[in-house]
Design a protein that fits this description.
Elements: E1 2-6, E2 9-17, E3 20-25, E4 46-51, H1 68-82, E5 87-92, H2 94-105, E6 110-116, H3 125-141, H4 144-154, H5 158-169, H6 173-184, E7 200-205, H7 214-222, E8 227-231, H8 238-241, H9 243-250
Parallel strand pairs: 3-4, 3-5, 5-6, 6-7, 7-8
Antiparallel strand pairs: 1-2, 2-4
Helix pairs in contact: 1-2, 3-6, 4-5
Amino acid sequence: MDKISINNITLAYTRRGKGTPLVLLHGYPLDRSIWNETAPFLEDEFDLILPDLRGFGESTTVEMPYTMDSLAADIAGLLNHLGIEKAAIAGHSMGGYVALTFARLYPERLLGLGLISTQLAADPPDRKEGRYATAAQVAEKGVIVVAEAMTPKLSADERVQSMVRSLMEGQSSAGVIGALKAIAERLDSGDLLKNFKFPVLVLHGDADALIPVERAREVKAALPGAELIELPGVGHMPMLEAPEATAVALRKLAG
């Protein structure tokens, strides 16, 4: 694990493997360790870059509000630090929002885009309001309120539930609150698709209880050239529920 100072934060990351640069972005409210079971199937083909997004894992955050643009800028700065001009980027859930924002801001730097258990649409008003309400609860009671609410939605697999609950409980309140507000204010990404000139992989479990698989099918309908892979019986955490199948799908970003 290494750390860099960037954009007034400390960003922690792991780098392993060799080949095409591939950045794997974790979802909310987790950290880079969700990729530990999938990475061994990829490191012979990819130069894997696994960051903790700001406020999660071993990365720090700032008290002031920030946006998806800020998170994407962190990743661009990390690539600059590593001397990598172009990379494939795959994001899980919130990490998908960051990956889509990176595609909007830095399209010339993308070799390919992976969207895992994520969606294009911005939050409708009621969902946005709910995220701010959850942020207020976290400020009052801690991250346990998020861990209790989200654990059953992330996976039906008891082993995975135990893993993700432990991960969520270990995150900082400041990181969870900052991310909730950034997610609430994210832009709709549907209009981006027509501009994509790079391969797009869409990977989704058909048993996802948090973001329905229909959201993945919407991407495929809007961008027929995208490759959609649905994993039968898999929930919101394919990299933990089906790590080898997830890796097989991600290899399509090797170019």
